[in-house]
Write the C-alpha cells for this entry.
Amino acid sequence: MPQIAPLQTVSVGDIRVTFLPDGGGVVNPLALYPASNEAGWQPYQNLLDEDGKFITSIGAFLIEAVDRNIAVDLGIGPVSIPFPGFGPFSGGRYLESLAQTGVSREAMTDVIFTHLHLDHCGWTTVEEEDGRRPLIYPNARYRVNKTEWDFWYGGDNPAGPDPDTVQKPLADRIEFVAAGEEVAPGITMLATPGHTPGHMSLRIDGGDGQRLYLTGDVLHGTMQLAEEAWSVAFDADPAAARATREALYAQLTQSNTLVGVNHFSNRVFGRISRAGARYAWTPLE
C-alpha cells in the first residue's frame, strides 16, 4: 500500500541530504495524469490506495554541506487544499521534520527553489503568535531562476506563490540563480524546464565519484519511468516537460548516481536504471 514518504537521509561524500516530509496528496489518478486511463493503471495498482487514489508525497530537502545548510524548496505549508476534481493536498509537518535534523532555522544559510508552485514554497513565511509573518529562515539567501520568478511575480494564480505570504516577503530578498552555477562546493544548478518555465534541478557531486540529483518536479510518479506520455496535469508545457525527462535519463541512470524525487510515495531516494526500452525505480530502504 502506498504511503507518504518518511524522513530519510543519504550521504554523498561529505554532503548529507535529508528529505523533510510536510504532507501529501490523495489524488484522482486520471485527473493528475490526463493521458492515462483506467486500463493503463492496471500494472500500477501498488501506487494506488484501497479507494483507487494516487498517493503523492509533499516535502522538501535539506542539504548539509560543510559550513552551509541549504533548504531546497519549502513544502506546501500548514494548509489543506481541496483542489476540486483532483483531491486534497495538505501539509504541516515541515518544521517537525526539520527539528529532527537538529538544524535550527537561524542556521539555514540558503534557500533554493526548484520552482514556485505552491507546494514548493508554502513555508516561505511562518505565522507568529502576534500575527506577523516573517521569513522562515531569517539569515538565509533566497534564490530562484529569474525566468521562474518573472513568470509568477505580480500574479495570483492559485497554483503559484501566494502574493501576500510568498511574493511580497521575497520581493526585496530574492536572488537569481542560473543553469551551470555552482551554488556551493559540489552543488550545481541544472535547467530542467517544462513543468514550469524556469524549473531547475540540482546535481550534487560528493567528491568520491558519487552523485545525487534532486530533480524537483521533473518526475511525479514512478510509473512515468515506463509511461513516457503520462505528463502531470500541472505541467505548464507538457511537451517540454517530457523532453526534459527524456534528456535527463542519460545522467540519472549512471551507476554512481542516486536520485531524489520529493513526490514519490514510500521512498524518495533511489536509483533509476534501464528496464528494456524504458526505465525502472529501485528505492533506497
